Amino acid sequence: MTMEKQRTALDEFVRRQWTATGPILLGAAAAAAVVAVVLTGLTDAGGRAERPDRSADAAAAAPQELGWPQVEGVPDGEQVISYRGVEILVPEAWTIDDMHCGNPARDTVIIEGGSSPGALELCAVSDPPKVTVVWVDRLDVPVQEHPVARLATEEWTLHGAPVLRGQGSPVFLEGPDPRRLSREVLVLPDQEVVVSVESPDAEEAMRLLMTTRVATVDSAGCPAAVDSLDVIPATRAGAAEQLAPGTPTGASVCRYTDGHLVRSARLGTDQVGELVGVLNAQAEGVGAAHPAEVAHGLGCTEIALEARGFVVHLTYPDGDPAQVLVRVDSCDRQISTNGVRTTVVTQELFGVLAGAVDYDGGTSALPNLDGGIELPFGLQP
User: Fold this and answer.
1) What is the third-level CATH fold of 78-214?
2) pLDDT tens digit string along 223-267?
3) Which of 181, 197, 339, 359 would staple 205 via disulfide (CB 3.0–4.6 Å)?
4) Helices (H), the chain
C-alpha cells in the first residue's frame, strides 16, 4: 500500500467515526486495531517496508475535534446553564436542583449535587420517575477518582478545548424491572467541570450534551474567572450616594466562589427595578463577623479565602455601565460597594441576589445578619 493510499484509508477511518447523531466513540484498543490493519499494507512491491511519515503519525495521534455545532446566543425556548466557564442549553421550563428525597423529581439540572443510594427507600419511593437530568459537577479530584468522570476515557477537543468523552448505562434500582438510563459524559479538565446527561431517551441525552460550550464570558456577561472580587469605581453621577446610581435598564448577577463563576443570571425588567431599590436601601457601613465564627476560628480563615460574593453589572441606555460588589464571606469584609460608596449587606439583599441566580452557596442566611445562622458541625455561639 502506498503512503498516499495509507493516508486516504486513515482519513476514511476518521470520517466514518461520525453519524448524524454524533460520534461513534472507539476505545483505544479498537482504534489501534483499525490503524494496525491499515499499516499492514505499508510495504512496497519488493516487500521492503516504507519509511512512515512521522509528522503525519503525530497529527493522527493528536485528539480530534468533536465537531459539534457551536450554538450562538440562546435559542427560543431554551435557557443557559453556566458553571465555571462551561455552558449547556436546556429547555426553558426546566428548573435547577429539582430534587425529592435526594433524587431528581422531574427533568432538571443538578449542579454540584448527587443522589443518595438509600434515599428512595427512606422516602418510600418504589419507582423513580423517568426523567432526563443534566448533572454539572466540579472536578476536584483526579479523573479516575471521580465516580462519573472516570467513564470518560476518549480524548477529544471541543471548539479547541481539550475534553474527555465517555458513556455508561447506570442502573438505579435492582429487581425485575431495573431502571436503566443512557448516560453521556463530558469532562472539561481545564475548567475542572464534569457534565453528565442521563435520560431514558439516548438521542435526547446526546442532543443536550452537544449543546455544551466553553466561554470566557458567559451569556449573562459574567467573566468565567476573576483574579479577585473587585469593581471598577463607578463614574456615574450619584454614585457616592447610591450603590446603583441613576436608572439602570439592565442588570446581570454573577456569583463567584474562589474566583470562579458558579452561577449567573441576566435579570428581567421587573427584577432590575427590585434589585436597584434594595441596593440603594443599604445603609452605609461595613458588616461585622459573627461572634461564633470568630470564637471557633472560622470565617476569617478558610471561608474568607474562598472570597464568596456577587458582582452585579448594571447597564444604562447611555453612558458608562456600573458594577456593584457584594461580599458574602464571613469576615469584616461583609460589604456592598460600587467602588465609591460602601454599605452593609442586609438579609434582603442577599435573598434577592441568591434568588436571581437560584443559588445561595449552601446557606440561606448570612452569618452576621438577623441573628446569624446555624454553624457547621453543630457549633454554637
Assistant:
1) Jelly Rolls (2.60.120)
2) 998 887 878 888 899 999 999 999 999 999 999 887 888 889 999
3) 197
4) 3-15, 28-39, 54-61, 119-122, 202-209, 269-280, 291-295, 302-305, 347-357
